[in-house]
Design a protein that fits this description.
Blueprint lengths: L4 E3 L10 E3 L27 E2 L66 E2 L6 E2 L12 H5 L2 E2 L2 H4 L8 E3 L2 E2 L24 E8 L8 H10 L9 E8 L7 H17 L3 E7 L9 E4 L7 E3 L1 H9 L1 H8 L3 E7 L3 H4 L1 H14 L3 E5 L10 H13 L4 H10 L9 E7 L2 E8 L25 E2 L12 E5 L7 E4 L5 E3 L10 E3 L3
Parallel strand pairs: 1-22, 3-13, 9-10, 9-11, 11-14, 14-15
Antiparallel strand pairs: 1-21, 2-20, 4-5, 6-7, 7-8, 12-13, 15-16, 16-17, 17-22, 18-19, 19-20
Helix pairs in contact: 3-9, 5-6, 9-10
Length: about 500
C-alpha cells in the first residue's frame, strides 16, 4: 500500500528516479490532444512571447518543441523546487484562518432555529443532536453558558449547559446517535464567490470551477445568495486591452456590490513549455501569444481584482496550466511573487508536463469542502484531499501558502513501491525488446520505500532493466496517512 513520506526538495537529485539503462529514443513532436467537447487539454506548447499592451506580430508560426525537451522533463521528479529564502515581511490585518459562521450544527451539519452556540468557540448544536435542548425554554437557555462536545474534549463527561460553575445536568447531556459530525468540525456559512478566468479556446462544460460550484450548492441551500459563480473567458488582443478591461470591470462591480467573504480564483489556460509563460490568446499552439506570469496577472486579472482578493477574509487560487509554471525556476518564482502579492491564503499549481485540467476537479473539490465548509486547516487537508482523489495520481501538486513572513511552498508527489517507485513512472515498454509492461517486481519490494531498486524486463532473453534511485531526505508524514497516499517534497 502507498505510504506518505516527506523529504527536502533542496537535497533531491534533479534527475529522473527511473533511469532506463538502454538507449533512449527521440521524442515525438507534441500535438494538441482533445478532451471533452473536442477542446484541447491544457498542455500548451510554445508561444510567441509578447507582453500585454505591446503590439505583437500579425501571425505566428512556431514549431512545437519535441516532447521531453531538457527544459521540461516528462517525469514529475526531474526538476525540484530549490530552497528560496524570502525577506521576512510582517503583515497586519490578515486572519490566520477563515472565520467560520454559526448557522449550521457542528454535529449534523443542518440549521435549526433553536440551536445553541458554544461560549468558547462559537460552534452551534441543535436540539436534534442534543435532545435535552428540546425541552428547555429560550429564557432558561439564555441564563446558561454552553460548552460544545469539541471544547469538552475526548474522554470527558459532556455536561454541555452550565450555570456558573455547576452543570445543569449533573449526569451529563445526551448526544444523539444520528449526529455524524467529525470531532473538531465546524460548518461554515460565510459567502463564497467562485471566479473562473478561462482561455476562450479551452472553454467548455465540466470545468473544475463549474464542478466546484455545483458541489458547494448543497451547503448553501438555505442561503443560495451567498454562493455565486462567474466566468470570464479571455482572448486578449495585446495591442488593445480595453475590451477585456471593461469585461473585468463589470465583474468587479458585481463582486463589490455583494461583498463575498471568501473568494476562489481558478485560472484555466495554456503555458509555454520552454519559459513557463501563460498564454492569453490563440488556440494554445502555433497561433498563441504568451507573457510572464506576473504580467499575465497584472493585465488579464487586473489591479481591481488584485485589491479585491487582498481584502477577503480568505482567498485561494488554482492555476490549471501545464507543469512548466512550476518546473522552470524563473516561472516558479514569479508564481510565488504573485501569490504573495495577491495574498492568496492557498495557491495550487501542478507539475505534470501535459496537464488534463478535468482530472484535478476531485482534489480541488475535496480541499475546498474541507477548508471552506468544515473549517479544517489547509496544511492538514492537502495530503488527505490528494489521497481521496483517484484521478490526480499522475501529477505532482505544488502548494503555496501565504504567511505573515512570506510564502511557503510544498510539492506533493505520489509514491508507491511498485506502481510509482520513489515518485517515478515505469516506461510502458522495454526499449530493447519492445515488450509492453514487462517489468518484474523483485521480492519484498511491496514493503520497501525509498531504496535503490532494480526492475528487470520479464521477456525471455532480454537484458533490459530499470534502476530506481533513492531519494535523499525522505521523511514520513503522520502515520494516519501512511495507508492513504504519497510523498511530500518540502523546501525550507
Amino acid at each position: 500500500m502507498a505510504r506518505v513520506k516527506k523529504h527536502s526538495a533542496a537535497r533531491m537529485s534533479p534527475s529522473n528516479p527511473l533511469d532506463l539503462l538502454v538507449e533512449k529514443t527521440k521524442g515525438k513532436k507534441n500535438t494538441a490532444k482533445k478532451t471533452n467537447g473536442g477542446k484541447p487539454k491544457t498542455t500548451g506548447g510554445t508561444a510567441t512571447h509578447c507582453p500585454l499592451g505591446i503590439p505583437g506580430p500579425v501571425s505566428t508560426s512556431v514549431e512545437l518543441s519535441p516532447a521531453g525537451a531538457p527544459a521540461l522533463p516528462q517525469s514529475s521528479q526531474d526538476s525540484v523546487l530549490p530552497a528560496v529564502v524570502l525577506p521576512k515581511k510582517v503583515r497586519t490585518g490578515r486572519p490566520s484562518s477563515v472565520q467560520p459562521g454559526d448557522l449550521w450544527c457542528s454535529l449534523c451539519g443542518n440549521g435549526h432555529a433553536s440551536s445553541v452556540t458554544c461560549s468558547k468557540c462559537g460552534r452551534s448544536n441543535c436540539p436534534g443532536c442534543i435532545p435535552e435542548l428540546a425541552g428547555m425554554e429560550k429564557e432558561e437557555l439564555d441564563s446558561c453558558t454552553y460548552e460544545c462536545p469539541t471544547c469538552c474534549g475526548r474522554r470527558n463527561i459532556f455536561y454541555g449547559l452550565w450555570k456558573g460553575d455547576a452543570p445543569v445536568f449533573p449526569q451529563g447531556m445526551t448526544i444523539a446517535d444520528t449526529a455524524k459530525g467529525d470531532h473538531g468540525v465546524r460548518y461554515k456559512s460565510s459567502s463564497v464567490i467562485v471566479l473562473e478566468f478561462i482561455m476562450a479556446s479551452v472553454a467548455g462544460k465540466g470545468t473544475p470551477a463549474l464542478a466546484l460550484h455545483v458541489q458547494l450548492q448543497g451547503f448553501f441551500s438555505q442561503n443560495p445568495q451567498d454562493l455565486k459563480y462567474r466566468c470570464v473567458p479571455f482572448d486578449v488582443d495585446p495591442s488593445n486591452l480595453e475590451p477585456h478591461r471593461e469585461k473585468v470591470a463589470r465583474v468587479v462591480n458585481l463582486l463589490n456590490r455583494e461583498n463575498f467573504d471568501q473568494a476562489i480564483l481558478i485560472v484555466h489556460t495554456h503555458s509555454d513549455k520552454e519559459r513557463g509563460d501563460l498564454m492569453y490568446c490563440g488556440d494554445g499552439n502555433t497561433t498563441s501569444q504568451s507573457t510572464g506570469i506576473s504580467d499575465f496577472f497584472e493585465k488579464v486579472i487586473g489591479p481591481d481584482l488584485h485589491e479585491y482578493f487582498q481584502s477577503r477574509k480568505y482567498s485561494m487560487m488554482v492555476l490549471a496550466a501545464c507543469g512548466s509554471v512550476v518546473r522552470i525556476p524563473a516561472a516558479r518564482e514569479e508564481l510565488r511573487e504573485v501569490a504573495n502579492s495577491f495574498k492568496f491564503a492557498d495557491t495550487f499549481a501542478f507539475s505534470e508536463a501535459d496537464l488534463d485540467p478535468y482530472r484535478i476537479t476531485p482534489f480541488i473539490t475535496e480541499f475546498v469542502m474541507n477548508v471552506l465548509v468544515t473549517g479544517r486547516p489547509s496544511k492538514d487537508t492537502v495530503p488527505t484531499a490528494l489521497s481521496l482523489s483517484s484521478t490526480l495520481h499522475y501529477t505532482g501538486v505544488v502548494h503555496l501558502q501565504w504567511t505573515e513572513t512570506g510564502v511557503e511552498m510544498e510539492r506533493f508527489e505520489r509514491v508507491h513501491p511498485t506502481a510509482r517507485p520513489n515518485g517515478g513512472r515505469f516506461p510502458l515498454q522495454c526499449k530493447i525488446c519492445h515488450a509492453y509492461r514487462p517489468w518484474v517486481v523483485p521480492k519484498a519490494t511491496k514493503k520497501r520505500y525509498n531504496i535503490k531498486q532494480v526492475f528487470k524486463c520479464g521477456t525471455k532473453k532480454c537484458s533490459g532493466f530499470l534502476v530506481v534511485r533513492r531519494l535523499k531526505g525522505y521523511r514520513p508524514l503522520p502515520d494516519r496517512l501512511d495507508k492513504i497516499f504519497a510523498a511530500l517534497i518540502s523546501p525550507p
